[in-house]
Design brief:
Layout lengths: L7 E9 L4 H12 L4 E7 L2 E7 L5 H10 L3 E2 L3 H19 L3 H4 L4 H7 L3 H12 L3 H19 L4 H7 L5 H12 L3 H6 L18
Antiparallel strand pairs: 1-3, 1-4, 2-3
């Protein structure tokens, strides 16, 4: 794609279901594979792209994303919900100071430039789940991952995830997952949920 093309457009797109660095790589590769789209910047949930509008439309772009398990987000409220979700995932999976920031509602407020109570209400209205519950669900999946890796003690995991004690972590783990930490460790096929499906109703 030639940058000087009169039909070239630069836009920022919000993308649903981007929950890991692998998702970032896949989206970049699939968009640029077309030869008509250049990814200028990309991170969880958002991308700045440049494309030839004479060859591609936003619907074409959306179809590429859908084929790979993602989709464009157009609704303003839904865009903010996705930003909230990706901010939480970034914090819990990639943050260097998770234990203090997760307890501090100012983190999301400052990152998303909106009062926490407003963010919490928006999240609940769009998902039917409280923001606090979603944070716990993401933490549980991260804890499952760390347990599976078996590279850290439970005390180290508790500290990293912001729990005041191993007992507190263990109690919440059992309450949310239905099994104890020990039982989970002993499972041959450990049950983990994709982060993109945490808010989906359980299958019957």
């Amino acid at each position: 794609m030639q940058p000087h093309n009169l039909n070239t457009r630069k836009i920022t797109i919000c993308i649903k279901n981007m929950v890991s660095n692998s998702c970032v790589r896949i989206v970049r590769e699939e968009l640029e594979r077309t030869g008509f789209i250049k990814v200028l910047h990309i991170e969880l949930g958002i991308a700045d792209i440049q494309y030839d509008a004479q060859v591609f439309s936003q619907e074409n772009i959306n179809q590429i994303l859908i084929r790979n398990g993602f989709s464009l987000i157009a609704d303003k409220g839904e865009k903010m919900v996705e930003k909230i979700k990706t901010s939480i995932i970034q914090l819990i999976y990639y943050g260097n100071n998770t234990n203090s920031l997760v307890r501090n509602s100012d983190y999301l407020s400052q990152k998303l430039n909106m009062p926490y109570l407003q963010l919490s209400k928006l999240f609940s209205d769009h998902t039917g789940t409280t923001l606090e519950k979603y944070i716990i669900m993401v933490k549980m999946e991260r804890i499952k991952e760390l347990i599976t890796y078996d590279e850290m003690t439970l005390s180290e995991i508790a500290y990293l995830m912001g729990y005041s004690s191993v007992q507190y972590l263990s109690n919440q783990f059992k309450q949310i997952t239905g099994v104890s930490v020990t039982e989970y460790k002993d499972q041959l096929h450990k049950s983990r949920k994709p982060l993109s499906s945490l808010l989906e109703p359980p299958s019957i």
